[in-house]
Structure formats: structure tokens, C-alpha cells
Design goal:
The protein is built from 14 helices and 12 strands. It is elongated. It has a 6-stranded parallel β-sheet, with helices on both faces. Helix 1 packs antiparallel against helix 2, helix 4 packs across helix 13 and helix 10 packs across helix 11. With 374 residues, it is of the alpha/beta class. Strand 3, helix 6 and strand 4 form a beta-alpha-beta unit. The N terminus is likely disordered. It folds into 3 domains: 32 residues; 129 residues, Response regulator (Rossmann fold), CATH 3.40.50; 143 residues, Rossmann fold. The structure holds beta-D-glucopyranose.
């Protein structure tokens, strides 16, 4: 079962890479790369049983590159928007260990402390030091243009991660021959999966049977497209599934657990029994909301639903026991490995795609139990 799941995940990822390849303008050898990736991924999925599914899924991207021997021992500068973020902590730890083990890289990671000015200075310092490549999780996606130009001036390739720049900026890299790429996931998919999780419950999110799903939305940083899309597409999925919706509450919790708890507590106090579903743009905030729900004497699955995104270990445990309705795996392993592999390809002088996306995976009580057991 695990092998089959791993294979499916791997192939899904290969196909999403193939889709990106055909959509891009700057591509080189997308078709043969994809074939090679598919073959190797199949082999990887068949021969490994112990590795986590998402790790195997990542093998597909690893195989997608050409010869990266020139990247061995590369010097990598990594900027993270802030260290105090649950998901980006997992991401950066995996990124560092993979860069070191696969490429013998020297990796320096700095904390942007959620301050774009500070982070722009950090980028400048890396440029002055002459790193071979930069991996960048910007504080503000809207600063991508400025940072991409700094890297271009210095002749240093840039791999932007996690916070997707707008399409016009990505097109500019193509038009102006800027050595930059984006590695992330399509946040619309994660929102859709959240909505579907609610649709798959026995009452489709409508506990009081009035034909309307009355919900609260706890958002991440709204500057971030992940927050915008998850907010929009979770509700769109409910509507596409034939449900009427009523937004009772929507506020920004900035991806933060404590804020998630406070906001959920406010929504529960304000709307009481009328509140049927709490959507959180990520798991950190959902973990906070879970505490608030319990403190308010409400019971997930019995009189309210709660969903998040990321599949943090803690949240997967809650989903397995039924105290959180569901979450969506945001594959930090696949994304960090892809970012590292693409960085190595750029350092080796290869032309790469302008965008790589790794699929999200829905996590419900059934699949969470399996994940938690592993
Ligand atoms: C994750 C959040 C994280 C954010 C940081 C999102 O993709 O789901 O948990 O806080 O990225 O930018």
C-alpha cells in the first residue's frame, strides 16, 4: 500500500513537473528529463520501503537534472523569512541536511526576522561573500523584483521558495534572461482540498441543517498568495460542491499558533453554536484553534469542524484521533529537495524551468492514522 501510494505521489509530481515544462518558455530538455525522472522514480518507489512517502516523491525531481558534479561542495546562502515559523523550520532543516548530504554543500542560513529591510541586507552580505547560489524565502513576495535584480547584477543564480512571486515577475525573468526560478506548491490545490474535506463529512459542514455552512476563516499573512488562495479556494470548493456558505468571521492570524488560538476563541465567543466550521490557512493556527474549541466546550466532529494545511506531525496526530477534522500535506521534503536540486543544476550551468510545483496531499482521519503510525 505504502509503495503504491509512494509511486502515485511520485508520478503525480513528475506529471506536474512535466506540465510546468511545457508551459515555460525557457526550457531545454524537458521531455527526456521527464522520462528519465519517471523511470528512476518508479525504481525508487519499488525498491524502498523504509523511506517516507514524500521523500520518495522527491526522488523524481532529484532525477530530473543533468550532470551536477560541478555543484559538489557549492557554497549556498539561504534566507528564511523568519525562523520562528513551524513549517519553515521543518523546511530549512530538511534543506540543509539534503544540501550537505547530496552535494557536500557549505550552507549558511539566516533569519530575516520577518523584516524585509533586514533580509535585503542579508542578501547583500551573501552577494559580497560571493556565494555560488541563493535560496530565498522572502519576507515579502513583492520584493522579488528588487532581490532578483541584485542577484542578476552579481551573477548569482536565485531560487525563490515558498512565497510565490506574481506571474509578471516570473515572465520578466524569461524576458530579461535572469537566472531565477520559483519552487513551491499551488496553493489553490490546498484550499480546494480543505473544502473537499468538509464536503466529505456526513453533513457537509452543515450541523444545524439550515442548508448553509457558517464558517470562520483564520488567515495567514494576507500579503502571501498561499493565504489568499487557501481562503478563496476552500470556500469555492464548498460552493462547487453545492453548499451555500456564510462567512461569520475572517481575520489574519499571520500563520501563528497563539494568534490562531486567540482568533478562534473570539469567533467562538461571538458566534457560539452558529459557528460550524473553522478554516485555518495553516496547521500552526489550527493547533491553536483546537485549544480554543476545547476550552469553549465544543467537540470537533460532533458540533464543529476544523481544518488546517501543512500536516505538521502534531496536527496529523490530532486528525488521527479526530480532534482536528483534516489537514493537507504541504510537502516540505519534496519542495526542499527540488529547491536544492535546481540550485545545483543552476550552479552547474544548466538552464532550468522558471517554476516547479510539488503537489499537496489531502489528509483525513483514515490516512492520518496510517501516517501517524509510521
Ligand atoms: C505554510 C505556512 C507557513 C508559510 C510561510 C505556507 O506555505 O503553509 O505554514 O507559515 O508558508 O510563508
Amino acid at each position: 500500500m505504502k509503495r503504491i501510494l509512494a509511486l502515485v505521489l511520485s508520478l503525480v509530481m513528475v506529471f506536474s513537473l512535466a506540465a510546468c515544462s511545457s508551459g515555460g518558455d525557457t526550457e531545454t530538455t524537458a521531455a527526456p528529463e521527464t522520462t528519465a525522472a519517471a523511470e528512476e522514480t518508479t525504481a525508487a518507489a519499488e525498491e524502498t520501503t523504509a523511506a517516507a512517502d514524500e521523500t520518495e516523491a522527491a526522488e523524481g525531481t532529484e532525477a530530473a537534472g543533468g550532470d551536477t558534479s560541478a555543484a559538489q561542495g557549492m557554497n549556498v546562502g539561504v534566507c528564511i523569512y523568519k525562523f520562528d515559523d513551524n513549517f519553515m523550520t521543518l523546511y530549512r532543516q530538511e534543506l540543509q541536511s539534503y544540501l550537505e548530504s547530496e552535494y557536500g554543500a557549505t550552507v549558511t542560513i539566516v533569519d530575516g526576522k520577518n523584516d524585509q529591510n533586514e533580509q535585503t541586507n542579508q542578501v547583500q552580505n551573501f552577494i559580497t561573500q560571493g556565494v555560488d547560489v541563493l535560496i530565498l524565502n522572502l519576507v515579502q513576495a513583492s520584493s522579488t523584483e528588487v532581490v532578483a535584480n541584485m542577484c542578476k547584477e552579481a551573477g548569482i543564480p536565485a531560487v525563490f521558495i515558498n512565497r510565490e512571486p506574481d506571474e509578471a515577475e516570473i515572465q520578466r525573468w524569461v524576458d530579461e534572461g535572469i537566472a531565477a526560478t520559483y519552487v513551491g506548491a499551488d496553493a489553490r490545490q490546498s484550499g480546494t482540498f480543505q473544502g473537499e474535506i468538509i464536503l466529505e463529512t456526513e453533513n457537509k459542514g452543515d450541523f444545524n441543517g439550515d442548508g448553509v455552512v457558517s464558517y470562520a476563516m483564520i488567515m495567514g499573512d494576507p500579503e502571501n498568495i498561499d493565504a489568499q488562495y487557501r481562503t478563496e479556494y476552500s470556500i469555492k470548493a464548498l460552493e462547487d460542491g453545492g453548499m451555500q456558505v456564510e462567512k461569520l468571521f475572517e481575520q489574519r492570524g499571520d500563520w501563528d499558533q497563539t494568534k490562531g488560538q486567540e482568533l478562534a476563541a473570539n469567533a467562538l465567543t461571538q458566534y457560539g453554536e452558529d459557528l460550524e466550521v473553522i478554516f485555518c490557512n495553516n496547521d500552526a493556527m489550527a493547533n491553536g484553534a483546537k485549544v480554543a474549541i476545547e476550552a469553549a466546550g465544543r467537540v470537533v466532529g460532533e458540533d464543529i469542524y476544523l481544518v488546517g494545511v501543512d500536516a505538521l506531525d502534531e496536527t496529523v496526530g490530532y486528525v488521527a484521533e479526530g480532534t482536528v477534522t483534516g489537514t493537507v500535506l504541504n510537502d516540505h521534503v519534496g519542495q526542499s529537495h527540488t529547491a536544492a536540486d535546481v540550485a545545483a543544476q543552476m550552479v552547474s550551468g544548466q538552464t532550468v524551468e522558471t517554476k516547479y510545483t510539488v503537489d499537496y496531499v489531502k489528509v483525513t482521519q483514515e490516512t492520518a492514522a496510517e501516517m501517524a503510525a509510521e
